[in-house]
Amino acid sequence: MRREKKRKKRRKKGEREREEKKAGGTNYDYDTSAGARPSYGEFLGFDHVHWLCGNAKLSSDWFVSRMGFRRVAYRGLETGSRDLVSHVVRQGQVIFVFTSALNPTPTDFLGSEIGAHLVAHGDGVKDIAFSVSDARAVFAYAVERGAKVITPICEKSDEGGVVIMGTIQTYGDTTHTFVQRSGYSGAFLPGFRAITTSDPLEAFTPPIGLDFVDHIVGNVPEHDMEPTVQWYEKMLSWHRFWSVDDKQMHTDYSALRSIVIADHDERVKMPINEPAPGKRKSQIQEYCDYYSGAGVQHIAINTRDIVTAITHLRARGVSFLRVPDTYYDDLEKRLVGANFKVKEDMATLRRLNILLDMDEKGYLLQLFTGCIQDRPTVFLEVIQREGCSGFGAGNFKSLFEVRLHARTHPLFRGLAFVHHHPSPFLNVPHNHPHTLFTH
After folding, report:
1. Which of 84, 76, 134 is nearest to 112 (CA)?
2. Higher pLDDT, 177 or 22
3. Across the chain, what does the average pLDDT equal?
4. I want to staple 53 with a disulfide (CB 3.0 to 4.6 A). Which of 94, 123, 207, 349 is the partner?
């Protein structure tokens, strides 16, 4: 019986690879066998992403001014919080929370002392929160299987209603909070005050059009990927959705392995990357070195119109990774045999440096920012899906080569992530030195 199942799986994989070759796509392994639905209910999606920062106000301001988010909630001295200050920003369904300590004395937050966390990791993602149908049930399910408790399950309430929450530990110092809102109508969570004023930039800048968190990528040291994936399988009964190995994802100098894990309904997807040996240090290994271990590498945000989103983000001064024109020459050749039509103008994709990958179901468009802080750790991705369920594996080699060039070039990020498009609404000259910032 087992042999027959293995033969069927190999046969399906072979058929899929032939289809992908016909479509001009990349051969990577999908596995969408979710199994039986867990007893704890449903994951509804990403609820919010919580960052620890040296200066939460300035960090949140960057997302408002550069990324087009708006301020929605605040917690600090004015709300009775004597130890922590938090600024909450939102765009579409994407919610980011930025928290800093208020006092010079040690301050704990979700199992970490904030000062020590910043020394070890720099500014970065501390907590990935999930919206769930039954927080008590999923929390108990994970704890019964051995998950480490960071914050016990509890109820928080205010005039907006009740929220049920509990937090467990995952890879590195990162945590997961389960959030059950049950009709909560407040601005964010109990203890936060709504912000009703608009940022002045909203009056004369067009909306970006970012809709929701598509996936969040974690980097772990070599040999830790498989144990991390098994943790999600055991604690949450998630399944393996997609994977590539270093035979597929490599250049002469750099390589990685990646497994994407997902909840039963595949509303939450989280790739886990680890470095593989190469002639030089890979971006994954560089991340682990500078972040001092495992952590969130990047957050991918979905949009229905990436051309408009990237146009407006570039105009706001956001710097993106650049690939050479030869990438697009090769792409046009790959698209000749594709079984779908790309609706976007290829000249526009080339001009904006937007990347394209494909599989037998369609294509995706994506682009990556440079690192958004001084350490070469966390960055963002903008992604538009047109039927493709992948994660841009066909672009990894190009990205490896560009990042290698960036590290070895005497001007480092200044050439690899240069912002080179004039701003139609910020009235900043094309060649103004501020357009060369590279975070």
Report:
1. 84
2. 177
3. 85
4. 123
Do 243 and 146 lie in a common domain? Answer: no
178: domain CATH number is: 3.10.180.10
Which of 183, 218, 245 lies at the terminal end of a domain, its last residue? Answer: 183
Q: Is the pLDDT of residue 411 over 80?
A: no
Q: Are residues 274 and 328 in the same domain?
A: yes
Q: What is the pLDDT of residue 133?
A: 97
List, as own/partner pairs, every contact residues 230-234 make where C-beta atoms lie below 8 angstroms and the sequence separation is at least 24, other chains included.
231/170, 231/171, 232/170, 232/261, 232/270, 233/261, 234/145, 234/146
% of the chain residues with pLDDT over 70? 80
CB 330 within 8 A of CB 358: no
Question: Distance between CA atoms of 101 and 222, rounded to whole angstroms?
Answer: 32
Helix (H) or strand (E) holding 291: helix 283-291
Tell me: do 293 and 233 sit in the same domain. Answer: yes
Examine residue 434 and state whether it is found in any structural domain, yes or no: no
Residue 274 lies in a domain: yes
Tracing tokens 């939450």 back to the chain, one arrives at: 268
β partners of residue 216: 299
Structure confidence at residue 253 (pLDDT): 52
* Share of residues in the chain with pLDDT > 90 (%): 70
Q: Tell whether 378 is covered by a domain.
A: yes
Co-location of 228 and 168 in the same domain: no
What is the number of structural domains in the chain? 2
Do strands 175-180 and 193-194 pair parallel, antiparallel, or not at all (unpaired)?
A: unpaired
Give the range of the structural domain holding residue 241, as residue numbers without chain letter. Answer: 210-416
DSSP assignment of 243-269: EE-TTTSB-SS-EEEEEEEE-TTSS-E
Q: Are residues 125 and 229 in the same domain?
A: no
Cα–Cα distances in angstroms (integers) from residue 244 to residues 15, 198, 294, 355, in the given order: 17, 44, 19, 19
Asked if residue 30 belongs to a domain, the reply is: no
Residue 397's nearest CA partner among 64, 35, 74, 28 is 28
Q: Tell whether 136 and 262 lie within a shared domain.
A: no
* pLDDT number for residue 280: 72
Assess contact for 123 and 154: CB atoms under 8 A: no
| Same domain for 112 and 251 | no
Per-residue pLDDT of 111-120, as tens digits, reads 999 999 999 9
Q: Model-level pTM?
A: 0.85
Band (pLDDT 50/70/90 cuts) for residue 422 is very low
Mean pLDDT value of segment 6-15: 48
Closest Cα partner for 399 from 293, 224, 213, 255? 255
CA angle 386, 391, 397 (to 5 degrees): 120
Is the distance from CB of 64 to CB of 70 less than 8 angstroms? yes
DSSP string, 167-193: EEE-STT-EEEEEE-TT--SSSSTT-E
